[in-house]
Amino acid sequence: MLELRPGNDVFVANRSIDRAQRLVDSISTPEEKAGELRAIGWDEARQLTWIDALVNATPLGMHGEDALDGFAFDPLPAIIADLVPVAAETPLVRRAREAQHVRVMDGLLMLLHQATRSFELWTGLPAPLEAMRAALPRPV
Questions:
Q1: Percentage of residues in the chain with pLDDT exceeding 70?
Q2: 28 occurs within a structural domain
Q3: Which of 31, 73, 85, 95 is 20 to 30 A from 140 via CA?
Q4: What is the pTM of this model?
């Protein structure tokens, strides 16, 4: 979970500024006093040249598209989380791993942890994490 602290700004980008604003409104709390939580459009997001972390929560990459196509980041963000849960690494994850200075989380890892939590909620038993990890189509 990202935490807004003084100096930490979070930009929520979407092709539709209205959808981005609805998401910002849904996660904003009146007592927030630190950092900026702001909705921006896709074109404005493409103009950003430097950010600390990037979370791709779009389907871009599901069919081999590069989620950073047209973006000007230089260097890549230090943390990249690509939430697309596909069998092969997405171009974004592959690019981030090649950069070596980037901490990467991909969609299969997120899916694994969602599945373990769901298993525990539904059964009341500890999830067999390693068995579930072994069932994934590739190591995470």
A1: 92
A2: yes
A3: 73
A4: 0.80
